[in-house]
Amino acid sequence: MAKPSDNLVDAIYSDLRLKLQRSMITPSDRLVDTDIAAANGSSRMPAREALLRLVSEGYLVGTTRGFAIRELSLEDISGLFEVRRQLEPRAAASAARDMTPAVEAELAAAMDRVEQALGENDIPALLAANVDFRNAWLKAVRNPHMAATISRFMDYFQSVRLGTFADGATAERYIDGLSRIHRAFLAHDPLMVQDRMTLFMFAAEEAYLDVRQRQLREAEMSRTARRRYTKRGTA
Amino acid sequence: MAKPSDNLVDAIYSDLRLKLQRSMITPSDRLVDTDIAAANGSSRMPAREALLRLVSEGYLVGTTRGFAIRELSLEDISGLFEVRRQLEPRAAASAARDMTPAVEAELAAAMDRVEQALGENDIPALLAANVDFRNAWLKAVRNPHMAATISRFMDYFQSVRLGTFADGATAERYIDGLSRIHRAFLAHDPLMVQDRMTLFMFAAEEAYLDVRQRQLREAEMSRTARRRYTKRGTA
DNA sequence: CCTGGTTAATCGGTATACTGTTTATTCGAA
DNA sequence: TTCGAATAAACAGTATACCGATTAACCAGG
């Protein structure tokens, strides 16, 4: 996933991509090419090309005032999950079939970290461990086109995932589903993995829709509140 | 699909994408940013950004001497078809369910053009009509993420498709499969569409693998032949 | 205070110029 | 004639500079 390699565009792209995965960029942030260029000690063009690539891949949107992370509508979430439902259960099943001991160990380690982070209520660690878990089983997917497509569709949800984990009860249900999938992997049972992943997909969709709906309501409220505020008192 | 809009990068990107779809770019062509810039009356940067976008989407590869269309390995073909098998039958079924009369008419018109082109042995027209047919049913796919993903995976095959259509017998079988799908659409039977699309996927994969295998063999032969030639006589 | 219009800042898009690396070519020596 | 080294050309990557559009800040008049 990370390829700093020798070229500035790729380096900046990977860096931004990682920050997106780790939810280190919030929807209110504005990414400006000159800032990113300065932060990386390069000129505007590499930063700009990295940003444009993220836009064309659907992670960012260009506004008239800097680039911002793309906010998912409820329809987006449903649509993205429709694709994920078609791909991930089957891919996970093939991963269960073709998994090496190394991958199995990585999966277990990631699951441990997930549960530890859950216990300590450490949201950033939870996000990171969650990404590790999925990357671990994706490694066992032999088809690189399949793996890349799935990885991409998962990454659209990082911003929403943050909200999911913030709520304790939802997080626990989410992690429980993950754990069930993990146990199916341990049993080396592709069909069980497939079924549990299917269930997980539906549960995750529902959770994300709930979270997003709440986010949208809150955004709406704070917007009207701010309007009222600016109308009354000015600094 | 085509959005010339107001910005040069998008305009050049759409133009190149269209040329790729129509197989107007061969694997031996070298796309150089300065040439493309000159052809569009712009500077290098927009052309370059369009090219880089096509690279990041997997349609082109950057070589040390210009950009070239990405050649698919046999593993690529199998892998890409594994994804297509998961997505297209189900998406086509939903298209059959949600299809409007307008889409139905468009589908019929495209099918007519396909058969006419087949009769006249007009390969470029066949390619174009084939693209029209798939775009027509994709219009009825309500989920834009699904449609975009499918569209993208289909476009990887344009270079190989040319080879498929060049062989009369293969082309006829391909078109027959398309026609059967079309009749299922006409019957408004989502399940029939799904099943026939599934069959079509397997047949198409086999055809593409055959064509590509032949291409690779021929390339190998001509390469050794050229080597021998340059060794003997120099101009 | 509120409103409307004018100015200033911000930022994306495009152009041009420069650099380093890779490949092709040419020319000379074996 | 062949091989290899020097040289030239091609091309991607990067930097800098300019322009135009959009938006925010500011100010004057109600």
Overview of this protein structure:
The structure is a homodimer of 235-residue chains. Helix content of chain A is 77%, strand content 3%. The N and C termini of chain A lie far apart (47 Å). Chain A has ten helices and two strands, in the order αααββααααααα. Chain A has helices at residues 8-21, 33-40, 44-56, 74-98, 101-120, 123-139, 144-155, 158-166, 168-186, 190-232; strands spanning 60-63, 66-69. Chain A is mainly α. In chain A, helix 9 (168-186) runs antiparallel to helix 10 (190-232). Chain A has two domains: 8-69, Orthogonal Bundle (Arc Repressor Mutant, subunit A), CATH 1.10.10; 74-220, Four Helix Bundle (Hemerythrin (Met), subunit A). The interface between A and B is medium-sized, with 22 and 22 residues. The first copy, chain A, binds a DNA duplex (30 and 30 nucleotides) through residues 7-9, 32-34, 42-46, 48, 62, 64-67, 234.
